[in-house]
């Protein structure tokens, strides 16, 4: 929910263009053409058994797909989390299923950074060469490169619109072909892969024995005549007509899907990775094969210490996930025409990140209502602090105790596998208790006022939701509404004004505006109603103004 601290992107890009990181990123940098990884003492583990890492204990627990249970989150280096995530295969529009995973992990990264002071170094790959990209490019009669760049840019714009923080760096597959070739050569050298006469290279699953299947089991695969085992998967694919290809020791071809992530993650983070994330649909075969490749290359038993997987997004009433192949998806762009990024983020916060989530109007309306309640409380508390909202005496001591209790509950919930539903419940309870003390009264009773405690409430709520969604943190939205109300007031005053009565003409007891101004009054009333429907009430405060018929107006926001 909060901004993560990332390393300087220009510096990382400069380093990335010249070097690839070796097995120990703290010691050695080598040229990509000489990319060689050797076994590291930090690369631990035996067989399928998970080995608890040594290093800095964060005090958090997170569900680890490698063990199917919550584990203490222990990082290799104090205050730093190395994090790799699989980015999009850019052949089509991104949809809400993708958005759900990226927003959920964005929330977790913000929690680690803002709440627990951990610097998250996040790297994401862009798959810009793939069977799907090639097929779509042929359909559209464009080059795969043009197609991939177009959808890559759209993806980044979608993430920006959803307020997802970018990684420290995006890395394209096509810009890392030499590193991928070197990585495959290393796996062959360690006798865990083999080349065929046709120019393909396959990973040899039999060579690692029972170590394959750490996430989801060994699984099944289709047999190919040149494969030693039906489960063997492609590291390098021999070139075919009308397909992009690159030179390699095995002839022209292109990378397989899984090898790109192993290579790129290793080129940045070396032989040890703290956290790997992705949707649960990527656990097998993609993440399973990544693990096999990296551990075969680095000759170790545990490359990635924690695998975090987000649950699927389902359409309400359907057991099937939202996906392009099922043609049951909603694009991010289409969604944002009806709902805001903040509403979608609240929608994600209301369920645990690793749970399946149902998409429906009812669930989105629940998120919208929660946001409206928080926003309304923010406006009321600010009005109270300004002296614009008169209320009975506040039980200040009880509110301070409530705030301290909420803070403790939020930290406990986040430390327990990033339990955002518990966090939202804690904040909504805080808002409820705050609202109980903000009941307006018609006449001031000169009771002592307690603006400071409400300032503390607002500061904490902003801290919790900063980045998750804007709760008027900059005051910009409020200023816009204030200016709009002031403009409405001026227009209404003009519409209600009457012309001076010419000498000799009779004076009416209750002058009314001329008929030409009636549409202005109607427009002012319509605007007032529209603002009310969005939780902003424009009320007449009742004081007489200098001009006859003019009423001074103010803005009061009430929780619905």
TrEMBL record:
Residue ranges, annotated region (Disordered): 538-560
GO molecular function term, any single one: cysteine-tRNA ligase activity
Keyword field: Aminoacyl-tRNA synthetase, ATP-binding, Ligase, Metal-binding, Nucleotide-binding, Protein biosynthesis, Zinc
Protein origin, superkingdom: Eukaryota
Keyword Ligase: yes
Any single Gene Ontology cellular-component annotation: cytoplasm
Biased composition range(s): Basic and acidic residues: 547-560
Catalysed reaction equations from the record: S-sulfanyl-L-cysteine + tRNA(Cys) + ATP = (S)-sulfanyl-L-cysteinyl-tRNA(Cys) + AMP + diphosphate; 2 L-cysteine = S-sulfanyl-L-cysteine + L-alanine; S-sulfanyl-L-cysteine + L-cysteine = S-disulfanyl-L-cysteine + L-alanine; tRNA(Cys) + L-cysteine + ATP = L-cysteinyl-tRNA(Cys) + AMP + diphosphate
GO biological process: cysteinyl-tRNA aminoacylation
Residue ranges constituting the tRNA synthetases class I catalytic domain according to the UniProt record: 78-368
InterPro entries, sorted: Cys-tRNA-ligase (IPR015803), Cys-tRNA/MSH_ligase (IPR024909), Rossmann-like_a/b/a_fold (IPR014729), tRNA-synt_1_cat_dom (IPR032678), tRNAsynth_Ia_anticodon-bd (IPR009080)
E.C. number: 6.1.1.16
Gene3D superfamilies referenced in this protein's UniProt entry, alphabetically: Cysteine-tRNA ligase, C-terminal anti-codon recognition domain, HUPs
Cofactor dependency: Zn(2+)
Pfam families tied to this protein: tRNA-synt_1e
SUPFAM superfamilies (alphabetical): Anticodon-binding domain of a subclass of class I aminoacyl-tRNA synthetases, Nucleotidylyl transferase
Family assignment from sequence similarity: Belongs to the class-I aminoacyl-tRNA synthetase family.
Reported function: In addition to its role as an aminoacyl-tRNA synthetase, has also cysteine persulfide synthase activity. Produces reactive persulfide species such as cysteine persulfide (CysSSH) from substrate cysteine and mediate direct incorporation of CysSSH into proteins during translations, resulting in protein persulfides and polysulfides. CysSSHs behave as potent antioxidants and cellular protectants. Mitochondrial cysteine-specific aminoacyl-tRNA synthetase that catalyzes the ATP-dependent ligation of cysteine to tRNA(Cys).
Protein name (database record): cysteine--tRNA ligase
């Amino acid at each position: 929910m909060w901004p993560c601290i990332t390393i300087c992107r220009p510096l990382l890009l400069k380093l990335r263009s010249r070097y690839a990181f070796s097995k120990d990123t703290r010691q050695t940098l080598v040229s990509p053409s000489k990319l060689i990884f050797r076994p590291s003492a930090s690369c631990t583990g035996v067989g399928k058994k998970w080995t608890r890492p040594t290093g800095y204990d964060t005090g958090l627990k997170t569900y680890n797909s490698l063990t199917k249970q919550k584990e203490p989150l222990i990082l290799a280096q104090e205050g730093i989390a190395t994090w790799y995530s699989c980015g999009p295969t850019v052949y089509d529009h991104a949809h809400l299923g993708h958005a759900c995973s990226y927003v959920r992990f964005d929330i977790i990264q913000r929690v680690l950074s803002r709440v627990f002071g951990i610097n998250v170094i996040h790297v994401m790959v862009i798959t810009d060469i793939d069977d799907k990209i090639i097929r779509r490019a042929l359909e559209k009669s464009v080059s795969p490169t043009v197609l991939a760049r177009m959808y890559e840019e759209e993806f980044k714009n979608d993430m920006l619109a959803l307020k997802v923080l970018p990684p420290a760096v995006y890395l394209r597959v096509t810009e890392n072909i030499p590193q991928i070739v070197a990585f495959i050569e290393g796996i062959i050298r360690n006798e865990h892969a083999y080349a065929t006469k046709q120019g393909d290279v396959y990973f040899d699953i039999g060579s690692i024995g029972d170590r394959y299947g750490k996430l989801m089991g060994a699984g099944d695969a289709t047999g190919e005549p040149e494969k030693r085992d039906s489960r063997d998967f492609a590291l390098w694919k021999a070139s075919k007509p009308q397909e992009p290809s690159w030179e390699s020791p095995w002839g022209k071809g292109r990378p397989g899907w899984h090898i790109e992530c192993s290579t790129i993650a290793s080129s940045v983070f070396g032989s040890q990775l703290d956290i790997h994330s992705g949707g649960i649909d990527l656990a097998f075969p993609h993440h399973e094969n990544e693990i096999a490749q990296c551990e075969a290359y680095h000759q170790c038993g545990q490359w990635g210490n924690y695998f975090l997987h987000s649950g699927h997004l389902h359409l309400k009433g359907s057991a099937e996930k939202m996906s392009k192949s099922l043609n049951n998806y909603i694009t991010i762009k289409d969604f944002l025409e009806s709902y805001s990024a903040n509403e979608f983020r609240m929608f994600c916060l209301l369920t645990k990140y690793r749970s399946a989530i149902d998409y429906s109007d009812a669930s989105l309306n629940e998120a919208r209502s929660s946001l409206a309640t928080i926003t309304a409380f923010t406006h009321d508390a600010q009005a109270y602090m300004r002296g614009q909202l008169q209320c009975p005496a506040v039980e200040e001591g009880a509110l301070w105790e409530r705030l301290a209790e909420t803070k403790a509950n939020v930290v406990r919930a986040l430390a327990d596998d990033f339990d955002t539903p518990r966090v939202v419940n804690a904040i909504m309870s805080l808002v409820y208790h705050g609202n109980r003390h903000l009941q307006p009264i018609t006449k001031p009773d000169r009771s002592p006022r307690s603006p400071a405690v409400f300032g503390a409430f607002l500061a904490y709520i902003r801290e919790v939701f900063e980045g998750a969604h804007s709760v008027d943190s900059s005051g910009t939205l409020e200023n816009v509404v204030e200016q709009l109300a002031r403009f409405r007031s001026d227009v209404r005053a003009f519409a209600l004004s009457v012309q001076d009565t010419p000498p000799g003409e009779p004076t009416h007891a209750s002058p009314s505006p001329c008929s030409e101004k009636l549409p202005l009054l109607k427009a002012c009333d319509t605007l007032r109603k529209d603002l009310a429907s969005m939780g902003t009430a424009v009320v007449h405060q009742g004081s007489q103004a200098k001009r006859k018929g003019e009423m001074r107006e103010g803005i009061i926001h009430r929780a619905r």
